[in-house]
């Protein structure tokens, strides 16, 4: 499985569909609200939401929706990133509710080489998130600094920092001949 891309692997116009989707539970939303100290009753209080909002039910906090979509995009877009440089825009265009399943996809809008270092470049992308009905709920654009192949090669290749398993009393190593069980 690929985790992120080098600069050379991005093509302007390419779209990456992130998989799998994520069903947002009430627990997820409440925990995120509590962790971020957002105690707005629109997200936390069913009675309030039913009686005072146009939706008649709790709405998932927007920063959680964004965080899910950003996280979904990591394996395809920023898994090898040197830095996330900018979130240019973020729009919540429709509500997400408890029980909705979010899906995302990201389109490469542009890319350019770094002007200060020749081993990296910037990728400009737009991610859209939509629910199980295909209704777009969130759109954001961001710029990500990604490495070129020579950057990765100089730091250990595809999986830098990954250790090599060491033989010991429990495992003889990859080249050891295993004892075959007796046939009977």
TrEMBL record:
A Pfam match: MC_hydratase
InterPro entries membership: HotDog_dom_sf, MC_hydratase, MCH/BMMD
Stretches for region Disordered: 151-184
GO molecular function, one term: lyase activity
Protein name: MaoC family dehydratase
